[in-house]
Design goal:
By secondary structure, the chain is an alpha/beta fold. Helix content is 52%, strand content 10%. The protein has 11 helices and 5 strands; from the N terminus they run E-H-H-E-H-E-H-E-H-E-H-H-H-H-H-H. It has a 5-stranded parallel sheet with strand order 2-1-3-4-5, with helices on both faces. The chain is globular. The N and C termini lie far apart (48 Å).
Length: 223
């Protein structure tokens, strides 16, 4: 692995990952590598792409829920563009549908929830450095649990409900951000949380839910 890229907007998470990677490097080489020398940091998609152009076979540790990817389709396209990179999705919460799509799309993707134990985090990063996939135990248990027939009640916050309605009315993330006087990143995070809670993967499915829930009617909706 020629390069390690930490694509995470949280300073404390990056510091913790650097510390763990230093320990792994010391165990494997008998020396203490400098985290600054072995790891580079990306804080947005454009920065991540620039680093991958320099090191296309890098190991990327990505917090998808806090990064500026619009949805899982965009992430899949990104993965197709940088096929030689190995991706560790390291996030607070990911939907099962999202996890299934990522796992099916490439053997170069590992998934690790931030609630995972230190042992699992170390094991995942160690295997990723050798291009070996790892799925954390909690997510694996969820994937193997039979789906229930009954539809779960979806509890959206007031802000999420308002943003879902705007999405269903055809507004882009940037337009919603301007309307709400919020940042693109904030609205994009709400959007990801909405999709996760609804267990949908795209705008079309989210719009269908908005109609079923009575958030939008035909008088408001324009094709």
């Amino acid at each position: 692995m020629s390069q390690i890229i930490l694509a995470d907007n949280q300073d404390i998470t990056r510091a913790g990952l650097m510390y763990i990677l230093q320990q792994i490097g010391e165990q494997q080489t008998g020396k203490t590598p400098s985290a600054k020398q072995t790891c580079r940091v990306a804080t947005d998609k454009a920065g991540l792409m620039a680093l991958l152009k320099e090191a296309p076979d890098a190991l990327v540790v990505l917090d998808y829920t806090l990064f500026d990817f619009t949805d899982d389709d965009e992430l899949l396209i990104f993965g197709q563009r940088f096929r030689d990179a190995f991706l560790v999705l390291f996030s607070e919460d990911l939907s099962l549908d999202f996890a299934r799509r990522m796992i099916a799309s490439s053997s170069q993707i590992s998934i690790l929830l931030k609630e995972s134990s230190m042992h699992e985090i170390r094991e995942c990063l160690t295997q990723a450095l050798h291009n070996q996939r790892y799925i954390c135990q909690r997510l694996m248990e969820m994937l193997l649990t039979p789906a229930t027939v009954a539809e779960e009640v979806v509890n959206l916050t007031k802000t999420e409900t308002e943003i879902l309605k705007d999405i269903a009315l055809g507004m882009t993330t940037r337009e919603i951000a301007e309307k709400r006087f919020s940042s693109f990143h904030t609205v994009n995070t709400h959007r990801k949380n909405i999709f996760r809670k609804l267990k949908v993967n795209n705008v079309h499915e989210a719009t269908r839910y908005a109609f079923r829930a009575g958030l939008v009617d035909s008088a408001e909706y324009y094709i």
